[in-house]
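testing teh design pipeline on a random one, pls ignore if ur not involved
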């Protein structure tokens, strides 16, 4: 029997505790002279995945999703979540204590402006709030006639008596062969960028960027090999890495000490103040830096430059070594996927599989590679109507059998030391209806359109996003998520700043890795998503071309389920692309799997009959 070691299926939500915990918080707020408080689902770095000690929103409300915010007043309390989580929040939260509010209807600042009483003092933790968020809250509080107050010490922490300790996972050094560039060289590039932008220093508040710049990894959060740490990089001179010294072995400390100072995180505030003295301009990453640091810079006489970290684009454009590692990771992952898909094809028709069974099996096949370090996010395993929930996460309470004549959607990924993967396949169990095949093929056509895209240098993701939607639009259909996100190299499976989305304004550049994942979701019936990862590469050289062209190289190696295809909807060029892709999957994955899987793979990747 397969089992999962990197993810669990227990529903940890405890709605019944919400009322008592809310009462404790309100009592603490009254003791401090506060009439309300903001509880974001965030840590001081705005990480997607946070350590247990920072799961404040889950502790207070019971909601375990990856995004949301609670606002607590004396007589009102709300939890605001986006469209992915409205159903989950309603199920996990004590709705007698907290009103579940869809983000599309009311943003946190608008809710505050509506409900904050005149004269009320509303608190927020400046370590957990970005500059932009703080500005919105301040405008809202002022509009309501209230006062926004930065707290010294989070009041929720004062009543969370069994709060877990902060993580202390060991920091490890990145293999130079996988990093492809030394940390001193990366630091020099960052410092050159600071000079070009007339900045005196940069606070690196995103641990993903700290890990990339200093060529380190860690294990402080699930699913991403992060060491929770900060850095201060001056335009000239040695940077300082702020990391809990208990995470550093002597060997790691000695290696890092060759090119950086090392200090405890509690010294960050003072270091930033000293760097700002004399009017220095210090860049804060607008997406991750806490507003507390902006206040410290201004108070010290400096200027806080709230903008995009220069590290972000450097990190997004992978070098040759990183791309080589990503290709190796995807071949390894493709072999595990082929074993899973062959197993699924054999077992699913018997009618005994559940969503959890599928997750456990796929993780087990990945562990069999001997190289799996973690999964890159909790697997989305949705059978039938559960597949229509875009960010569905199976639990023991929701676990559903995988039934005949239904669609099964599985979105999963892995963390290997040489690369990060993310892949979605929609599988047909039994026979798909004509409508299912139509929708599946329209999604596939959009996927192929992105994969085949050739576009000028400087093109943004927003300009490509419609390629994935055009065939759905033609039938009056669409999907509500972005078409693609950036992916790190043994880092975050959701990496900025580039994305293929209506909101993706950053130009795509060589070496970026992005997902290509159009979908279609029929509420209460089924979901379809088809996802590969793509590398941005040089495009074809066209005689007479006036622009430098870019294109995509597909990283992911896994067959698409041919049983979902309506052949009449595919063009000759689309069939040619799919046949060529399947031939590549067969050639690269076939030698890596056992004979039984190879036999299945040959059938699954055979040329389409036109």
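output:
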């Amino acid at each position: 029997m397969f089992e999962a070691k990197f993810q669990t299926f227990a529903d940890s939500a405890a709605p019944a505790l919400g009322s008592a915990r809310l009462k404790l918080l309100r009592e603490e707020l009254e003791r401090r002279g506060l009439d309300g408080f903001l509880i974001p689902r965030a840590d001081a770095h705005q990480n997607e995945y946070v350590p247990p000690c920072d799961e404040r929103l889950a502790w207070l409300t019971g909601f375990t999703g990856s995004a949301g915010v609670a606002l607590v007043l004396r007589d009102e309390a709300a939890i605001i979540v986006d469209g992915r989580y409205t159903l989950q929040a309603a199920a996990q939260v004590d709705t007698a204590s907290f009103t579940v509010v869809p983000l599309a209807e009311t943003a946190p600042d608008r809710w505050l402006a509506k409900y904050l009483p005149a004269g009320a003092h509303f608190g927020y933790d400046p370590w957990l709030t970005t500059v932009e968020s703080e500005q919105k809250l301040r405008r809202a509080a002022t509009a309501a006639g209230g006062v926004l107050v930065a707290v010294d010490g989070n009041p929720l922490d004062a009543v969370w008596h069994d709060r877990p300790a902060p993580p202390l996972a060991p920091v490890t050094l990145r293999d130079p062969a996988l990093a492809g560039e030394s940390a001193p060289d990366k630091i020099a590039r960052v410092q050159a960028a600071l000079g070009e932008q007339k900045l005196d220093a940069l606070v690196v508040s995103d641990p993903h960027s700290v890990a990339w710049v200093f060529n380190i990894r860690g294990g402080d959060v699930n699913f991403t090999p992060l060491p929770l740490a900060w850095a201060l990089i001056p335009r000239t001179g040695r940077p300082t890495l702020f990391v809990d010294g208990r995470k550093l072995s002597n060997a790691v400390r000695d290696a890092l000490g060759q090119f950086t100072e090392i200090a405890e995180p509690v010294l960050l505030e003072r270091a930033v103040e000293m760097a700002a003295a004399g009017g220095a301009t210090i860049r804060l990453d607008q997406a991750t830096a806490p507003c507390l640091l902006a206040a410290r810079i201004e108070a010290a006489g400096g200027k806080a430059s709230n903008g995009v970290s220069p590290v972000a684009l450097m990190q997004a454009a992978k070098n040759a070594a990183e791309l080589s590692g990503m290709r190796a990771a995807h071949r390894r992952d493709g072999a595990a996927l082929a074993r899973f898909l062959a197993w699924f094809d054999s077992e699913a028709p018997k009618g005994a599989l559940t969503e959890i069974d599928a997750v456990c099996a796929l993780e087990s096949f990945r562990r069999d590679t001997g190289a799996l370090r973690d999964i890159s996010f909790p697997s989305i395993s949705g059978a039938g109507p559960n597949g229509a929930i875009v960010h569905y996460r199976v639990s023991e309470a929701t676990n559903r059998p995988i039934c005949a004549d239904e669609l099964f959607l599985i979105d999963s990924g892995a963390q290997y030391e040489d690369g990060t993967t993310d892949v979605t396949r929609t599988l047909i169990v039994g026979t798909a209806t004509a409508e299912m095949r139509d929708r599946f093929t329209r999604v596939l056509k959009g996927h192929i359109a992105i994969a085949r895209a050739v576009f000028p240098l400087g093109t943004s993701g927003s300009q490509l996003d419609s390629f994935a939607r055009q065939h759905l639009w033609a039938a009056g259909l669409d999907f509500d998520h972005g078409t693609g996100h950036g992916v790190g190299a043994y880092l975050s499976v959701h990496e900025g700043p580039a994305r293929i989305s209506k909101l993706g304004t950053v130009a795509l550049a060589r070496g970026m890795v992005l997902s290509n994942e159009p979908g279609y979701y029929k509420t209460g019936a089924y979901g379809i998503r088809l996802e590969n990862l793509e590398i941005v590469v040089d495009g074809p050289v066209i005689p007479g071309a006036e622009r430098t062209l870019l294109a995509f190289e597909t990283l992911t190696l896994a067959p698409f389920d041919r049983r979902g295809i309506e052949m009449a909807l595919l063009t000759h060029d689309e069939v040619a692309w799919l046949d060529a892709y399947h031939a590549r999957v067969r050639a690269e994955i076939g030698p890596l799997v056992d004979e039984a899987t190879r036999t299945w793979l040959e059938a699954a990747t055979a040329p389409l009959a036109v």
